[in-house]
Amino acid sequence: MPIQKVKKIWMNGEFVDWDDANVHILTHALHYGSGVFEGIRCYKTADGPAVFRHREHMERLHNSAKIYQMEIPYSVEELMDATKELIRENGLEECYIRPIAYRGYGEMGLNPMNVPIDVAIAVWPWGAYLGDEGIKNGIRTMISSFQRISPKSLPPFAKCTGTYVNSILSKLESLHAGCDEAIVLDYRGFISEGPGENLFMIKSGKIFTPPEHASILVGITRDTAITIARDLGYDVVETDITRGQLYLADELFFTGTAAEITPIREVDDIEIEKPWPITKAIQEKFYAAIKGKDQNYKDWLDYI
Length: 304
Ligand code: PMP
Description:
Elements: E1 8-11, E2 14-17, H1 28-32, E3 35-37, E4 40-45, E5 48-52, H2 54-67, H3 76-89, E6 95-103, E7 117-124, H4 132-137, E8 139-143, H5 164-176, E9 181-185, E10 191-193, E11 198-203, E12 206-209, H6 220-231, E13 236-238, H7 243-247, E14 251-256, E15 260-267, E16 270-271, H8 277-290, E17 301-303
Parallel strand pairs: 8-9, 8-15, 12-13
Antiparallel strand pairs: 1-2, 1-7, 3-6, 4-5, 4-6, 5-17, 6-7, 9-10, 11-12, 11-14, 14-15, 15-16
Helix pairs in contact: 2-3, 6-8
Bound molecules: 4'-deoxy-4'-aminopyridoxal-5'-phosphate (PMP).
4'-deoxy-4'-aminopyridoxal-5'-phosphate is lined by residues 39, 167, 193, 196-198, 217, 219-222, 255-257.
């Protein structure tokens, strides 16, 4: 799906015309993957557009930057203000938000210390990442032959641009195999996550999800789903999960800002039979929360 162009992009404190929001070919991050970024969503609600879990995302951006020894010259608060201003400037009611902080133009080579840190925020309309049909009827997945990055080589908690070449390989492999998405194992062989989603498994009325030590990106939608599930009275256990357990699961779903809550209907050609009642119950509360229809979760919304 081509990116839907809007008017302005925020770059280093300025609102720049969309077509002028460019970088130099010798930008450090383009060569070495030395950027950190976020994916956030703004939803249309009865009280106007609202950014979902805005602060948590900007804090994670700052944490990712800290891991890679990058000083972001804007506070969490300043980034939140810039984002809201940008959504207003573009007149959007609902959009995806992509903040990025990256090592820019200055020097080449692996010593990044003298390379300036640039920061940009883009917003544009972007629908369901794994499709509306996927959200309703589930998607087909396979276990990838590519492992998720190991904490011995790259910190999985950091949402770093370079890390995503690993995700792209598993995504391509799954698409070539006729699936919608991959599931990746961690360096020990336990289930980690999707290329851009966290994974949940339901078995005998209990909910399981891989723990932080399974090389996951600690997702904000993962936290949202855990909170909602516990509020609904379900036990949620963070524990190592094996491939075979997925085959015998009652329900499986992915969570992510882009993917929201997407059920999984197949793993390695093995069907996870409908009707997935617990997934549907969590989905229902999630969609109410993001649309501002559930007062219990109003603190998750930052109104424009
Ligand atoms: N894992 C990976 C690798 C991701 O890229 C994402 C998307 N940011 C997630 C999980 C889900 O995280 P979140 O719910 O915070 O979007």
